[in-house]
Amino acid sequence: MIVTALLTSVGINFGLCILFYTLYSILRKQPGNAHVYNARLVAEKKVKEGSHFQLDRLLPSAGWIKKAWQPSEEELLSIAGFDSVVFIRVFIF
């Protein structure tokens, strides 16, 4: 195995991971994307309209990662369904 090829692959994958993390963190806060990232809240009319500019929306945040790992399997099953539980079980052994 060529070490430089391995390091190149690790660097590319790490860079893409950081890019996608940053894009997700920024795009999920934009009011125009609420129907994509908060579909249930939009359907239940629980999303506040916020059309004025806020700098906080353009800064990536890691708060969603902690919230994503908090629910138990039972909570996830009742909220998101069986597909989500199976998907999460693939990653958490």
UniProtKB/TrEMBL annotation:
One Gene Ontology cellular component: plasma membrane
Domain of life, source organism: Eukaryota
Xref: InterPro entries: Csc1-like (IPR045122), CSC1/OSCA1-like_N (IPR032880)
Membrane-spanning parts: 6-27
UniProt key word Membrane: yes
UniProt-listed Pfam families: RSN1_TM
Alphabetically ordered keywords of this record: Membrane, Transmembrane, Transmembrane helix
GO molecular function, one term: calcium-activated cation channel activity
Domain CSC1/OSCA1-like N-terminal transmembrane: 5-92
The name this protein goes by in its record: CSC1/OSCA1-like N-terminal transmembrane domain-containing protein
Organism: Nymphaea colorata (pocket water lily)
Phylogenetic classification of the source organism: Eukaryota, Viridiplantae, Streptophyta, Embryophyta, Tracheophyta
